[in-house]
Amino acid sequence: MTKPIPGPSAERLRQRELLRQSPVYLVTEESLSAGRRSEEIAQAALDAGVRVIQVREKDGSVHRALEVALNLRVLTRRYGALLIVNDRIDMAIACDADGVHLGQDDLPISLARRLLGEDALIGLSITSEAQLAQDDAAEADYLGVGAVFPTGSKGDAALTGPALLTAARTATDTPIVAIGGIDVANAGLAIGAGADSVAVISAITQAEDPGRAAQELSAAVRAATVGAAAAKDSRR
Fold first, then answer.
1. Residue 229 confidence class, pLDDT cut points 50, 70, 90
2. 58 catalytic, yes or no?
3. Known catalytic residue: 232?
4. Class of 10-229 per CATH?
């Protein structure tokens, strides 16, 4: 008799919902922070209401990335926010992060789950419609879909446009985070296409006032969410 696969733990379900309800998902990158430290940017974003932060730090040393992760673990716990680490499962374990975000070329989610435990959030990047049918997409706690718009933060990012968000929303009820070139002007388009929230780097990290930028982005996402819900109700 086949042993049933256990569903997500109560803690993971709680964290999924927190992520789904958080309009803005900040991704740190100190090299794109106008000479400021990632801790300073994260503090401003948390003060402005951001409740999901991913440590990316692709352009610096592993030592500095771990330092950022450890410092942000303290901050995010203070604010009741989620801390996600990009790619590095070892770093996520070292800083006791809430989870990890994996790319298509990283470890399979099933193996990452064994290493991180049942309570960990595991996100997955989606860059094509074909990936939505793969096992990893079904096992992920959330999907990071894009690049939706042109972006300078990731030079090798393939432009997917909003259509992939719509395809992802049709394929799954899993929380969807739009990524790639998101700002106040286009965040509403991403939400209207099917995203629950938006992930940003430069729109906050390069802003003169990161806290204000985070507030404006959150307001744009919330307004678009209300509009999308109203449009859906009108079609029923």
1. confident
2. no
3. no
4. alpha beta
